[in-house]
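Ticket 4471: requesting a sanity check on a complex prediction with pyridoxal-5'-phosphate. Repro inputs:
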Amino acid sequence: MSEKRPVTLAELLPLVSTGIDDLKATYGSWDQHPSTHADPETVHAVLGELVDRLDADFPYFHPQYAGQMLKPPHPVAMAAYVATMQLNPNNHSIDASRATTAMEHEVLDQLAAMFDYPREYMGHLTSSGTTANLEALWISREIAPGKAIAHSQDAHYTHSRMGEVLGIDTMGIPTTATGRMDLDALEAELATGRIGVVVATLGTTGLGAVDPLADIIPLARRYGARIHVDTAYGGFFSIIADELDPETARHFRAIKDADSVVVDPHKHGLQPYGCGAVLFNDQSILRYYHHESPYTYFASTERHFGEIQLECSRAGASAAALWATLRVFPLTKQGLGGIVLPGYRAAQTWHGLIAESDILQPYQRPELDIITYLPRVRTMAELDRVSHAIFEMAADTTRPQQTHLATYVVKPEQLRMRGIDLAADAPAARIMRSVLMKPEHEPLIPEMHHHVSMWSRRAYAATHDGVAVPTG
Ligand SMILES: Cc1ncc(COP(=O)(O)O)c(C=O)c1O
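Returned structure tokens:
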């Protein structure tokens, strides 16, 4: 083994390109059909134009991009994806993906172990967190037809939308000042007898809040409801649970007792988009998947992923990319945990700086790596104006100076719950939000805080005819 160092896609591409060419050559050569030929000059021009057009994107790859849940995959994942894509296996059936179906089983075993799921789990990768959640909600509907879905009001919109798709009612349970599902409100809903499944989100999309799963499970069981965990964003924090607040960790450790769980390797798992996962802790649900397909499952008698998933075609390259990534960065504290933890620390550090600031104040304490904060202003309309100005100004400067942030919409009562009382001259306002999902954010936090404070002062002055920010 050699010393660790940054690896680049440029150095890995020749390896996978030549490797797959050599593999193909063992089957004998053939002529490519003229209809697939292309003029190299045109191809170069088109790809050049593509690169130019991609310049319109924000710099998701850069540590100064601290906006939404976006970052590029690891070069290992990209190289493995490119290698496999050249053969383009389809993990729908074993015959279409002998190598990558096996890899998918290996990575699923690792994901199941991360959640401490039983060895007899059932699961598969999906194209997204949305399809993974849809599948878990569909199974819940099959088990308890006619019953509703309860999720927190801060849950991802996918749950209410999928309720519509599945023809099931959904109930948005209020959240507390921590952004977590309110247990009393949940119990009141469960007591009506109409809830078939409770969705607990561990890492809400907006705030990174962690629903109190360890307390939701006994409550839901008492009323005969299933428990589904949407940890599409937060799932990989399970491997660093020891480092989190003990209360947060308690809920991550309870995932093992939930009926199903969703995690997105294309968020914190270093994968390109197109890689979600759903796991069920009980194989008896397999009976709901029964279907006939005379044209696909021909050669192998083993179970094909296509027999146990809602989707049909699915990229074998996704399984290969995740498999390769987890070989290099296993699901341990030292492996992938070493990449997830710095973002968590960055959020805690920035939160501390904001709590001491004379211009900014925290919205709430970050449980994972998403921070929310707002300028110190007096009214809702002012808040919206200044927040938007900060967002625009921080990004609208020379490229090496840019800081990309995101915003989050709140109502006066949500601020009041958190001890921030603003005149309600507008029904809602934007506050600031940052997702710190790249480990490179951590060393930049003091500088980013300095920048954002500076832009906040300027934004305040610009929206108040040059008046200085009110203190206290
Ligand atoms: C908690 C949560 N659930 C579900 C989703 C939807 O996942 P996807 O975008 O992979 O479809 C997201 C996306 O941000 C999420 O944060």
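Notes from triage: The chain has two domains: 84-328, 337-463. Leaving this open until the requester confirms.
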